[in-house]
Amino acid sequence: MKEEKVNPTAINLPGKRDASFNSGDHLLLIVEDDSPMLIALRDILSAAGYRVMTASNGEEALKALEQEKPALILSDIMMPIMDGIELLKTVRRKPYGTTLPFIFLTARGTSEDRSAGKMLGVDDYITKPVSSQELLAAVKSRLLRSGELAMIAQLLAVKDSLRVLANAIEHKRGHVERVNAYAQLIASELGWDSERCNTLELSAILHDIGQIRLPDAIVLKPGPLSDEEWIMMRKHPEIGAHMIAEIPYLSPAVPIVRHHHERWDGAGYPGSLEAEEIPLEARILAIADTFDAMTSDRIYRQARSPEIAYEEILSQKARQFDPELVEAFIRCWDRGDTAEILSINFGDDQF
Ligand SMILES: [Fe+2]
Ligand SMILES: [Fe+2]
Q1: Does residue 232 register a pLDDT over 60?
Q2: Average pLDDT along the chain
Q3: Rounded Cα distance, 236 and 209, in Å
Q4: Topology adopted by domain 17-148
């Protein structure tokens, strides 16, 4: 059987954005009352591929904002009718303006300006005269940063929604959070970077999502499952993998979800994969999942003590579990990290 490779890089995390940066995707608003300066700025930014709209004071800028929403505002401070400080204040009060990148372009750069701007949440200052290189670097870095922040916010929102959904489906309170927490302990022992840890977290959240397609009579059965029911139950990894396969953002989690019930000795399911044929993330989840299952109350039985569960994990070294990962788990246990997770209330009483 061939190893199913996990591709953690399919998740496009911050850091990769620079390579895919395209200035043409961004509309900028330049606000400047000195028209030669305004033209010079517009020309530099347009030549770099940005789409540019212009205004000669704050009031004009606000009118322009009613028509279109730029990705960034570059504004002079001292202007007639409405100055840059007033413009920034007004923009920050608008729903779309709270996180809109805002750069002040100023000849003064006095400390009062700077502290006023900082208080109001300006992102950066460029002091005139400005070279085109300096201008382009400042604009690009702000756009990249805001793209990263937007992506992180999106990522957190997605994870939160998935977590709520997964827990609701599983009827096992806090299960996915604890499985993730134990899995992350082991991953940190392996020195994984944040990108790989992120894939692991998504997989932990989703590992049992396939149970949604199983009848409650099986998932919630207060006693042991019959042979037939076991056959159904054992389908959940494949059902789950199938469910998330079409969502590009979740695709790295697919092989991990599919193989989280494989065993190191090849006696697991659904692929009877053996040892390193099993994706490493799935081997980690197997330990985390089993440890949490044993230490949590289930409908059909009471929780076992952490010490008994720990001994059980150790006894399955090189049988159910990857021996090296069991060693990593032992180090986490010895440091007290596992006990710390056991003491956390992962919203258990929210249901
Ligand atoms: Fe499972
Ligand atoms: Fe599970």
Answers
A1: yes
A2: 85
A3: 8
A4: Rossmann fold (3.40.50)
What pLDDT is attached to residue 71? 92
Interval between CA 270 and ligand 2 midpoint (Å): 15
Mean pLDDT of 195-201: 92
Name which residue leads in pLDDT, 143 or 297.
143
Sorted by sequence, the CB contacts under 8 Å of residue 80 that are 6+ apart come out as 33, 57
Ligand 1 centroid, distance to 208 Cα (angstroms): 5
Radius of gyration of the chain from its Cα atoms, rounded to whole angstroms:
27
Residue boundaries of the structural domains of the chain: 17-148, 171-350
110: CB partners within 8 A, 6+ apart: none
Instruction: Please choose, from the candidates 278, 140, 284, 128, the residue with its C-alpha nearest in 3D space to the C-alpha of residue 204.
Output: 284
Q: How far is the CA of 154 from the centre of ligand 1 (A)?
A: 27
Instruction: Tell me if the domain spanning 171-350 has CATH number 3.40.30.10.
Output: no
pTM, to two decimals: 0.64
The CA–CA distances, whole Å, from 143 to 18, 139, 197, 278 equal 10, 6, 26, 40
Separation of CA 175 and ligand 2 centre (Å): 7
The size of the chain, in residues, is 351
Strand pairing report for 72-76 and 124-127: unpaired
Distance between CA 22 and CA 293 in Å, rounded?
A: 47
Residue 328 has pLDDT above 70, yes or no: yes
Q: Please name which of 50, 55, 63, 54 lies closest in space to residue 21, comparing C-alpha atoms.
A: 50
Q: How far is residue 186 CA from its own chain's centroid?
A: 19
Give the separation between CA 264 and CA 282, rounded to whole angstroms. Answer: 11
